[in-house]
Amino acid sequence: MSIETKNIIVEKVKTSKIDQVDFDNLAFGSVFTDHMVVCTFKNGEWETPTIMPYQPITLDPSSKIFHYGQSIFEGMKAYKDKDNDIYLFRPLDNFKRLNISAERMCIPQIPEEYFMNSLTTLLQLDKEFIPTKEGSSLYIRPFMFASGNGFHASPANEYKFIIACAPSGAYFSGKVKVLIEEKYSRSANGGVGFAKTGGNYAGQFYPTQLAVAKGYNQVIWTDDSTHEFIEEAGAMNIFIRINDTLITGPTSDRILDGITRKSILEIAKDQGIKTEVRKITVKEVIEAAENGSLKEMFGAGTAAVISPISSFGFRETDYDLPEIENSFNQRLKKIITDIQYNKSEDKFGWRYKV
Ligand code: PLP
Ligand code: COI
């Protein structure tokens, strides 16, 4: 049966898959909800979004996504509070960033009402899939790609906007060990590093695999021209604490402007923590590790939340971070997740009730 509501066509599943989900043992992003949003851009306009049963999609072998990688995505989460009300965290920032990525990759802009209405309708429909267990949430993946055909290396004339969701647990299962990379680069000036485009991630897989083989979980990228400055990690922005100052690098056209990053900066300032947004040299991090002033290092992102880094490697040497009490990362994680799960007042106005 198909019903049209709020300019969305809704085709519901006949039987839900909810019984197949083991909510006590959720991995990250590997089981999916009953429905997905699909919206097609054709003849110069977006068609009415459809919510349909989660299913494979069929594409022509010449679809430009396969050849030229015209694809972008976002990462968001939906949270449930103790009353089973559903919340998003700063969703309009994801919406805006999706369109920033779209512009850079020559993908048409998605209108706000298409994004927000289809997302909130999907969440209402699949609300039983939003986990309630501490540390779990519904990971939401809005994405757009070139579905139009042809081997000509130019932007496609047809696109899909899709939202798929996965009830998920933590992104990292244990301690996070990172390797500061100085051979390979994630992005370059004037490139696409600030965009959430698939190729930024595919390009990281090989150097990350080399790091994983040496026992690390993620690579910390340095700038492509000198490799002297810390940029970000594969799936998160990086914060370091030297003595009592929390420092993160400035965003640029090489770095993703993380929503968690900017929220943490605001929370830290509000907490009276001294913050600095400035270039961080690898040299100063090594020196701080050696003289004991490096107190903490953590990654920040939607999937990663706040992930403390237990050690980092640089040129064959591993540097362990101390285990400290009352760490900034624990304090900031509690504040941000309490806002996300509606456990505390939201003085910043970031929570969005669905
Ligand atoms: N940097 C990269 C490369 C990412 O993939 C992510 C995740 O989205 C982040 C940083 C953190 O961004 P956000 O906090 O908006 O999720
Ligand atoms: C996110 O944190 O939402 C991301 O997009 C990172 C991803 C690589 C899992």
From TrEMBL:
Signal peptide: none
Keywords, sorted A to Z: Amino-acid biosynthesis, Aminotransferase, Branched-chain amino acid biosynthesis, Pyridoxal phosphate, Transferase
A biological-process GO annotation: L-valine biosynthetic process
Pfam family, one: Aminotran_4
Annotated EC: 2.6.1.42
Keyword flag Iron: no
Domain of life: Bacteria
Cofactor(s) needed by this chain: pyridoxal 5'-phosphate
Family: Belongs to the class-IV pyridoxal-phosphate-dependent aminotransferase family.
Annotated NCBIfam families: ilvE_II, PRK13357.1
Function of the protein: Acts on leucine, isoleucine and valine.
Protein name according to UniProt: Branched-chain-amino-acid aminotransferase
Organism field: Maribacter hydrothermalis
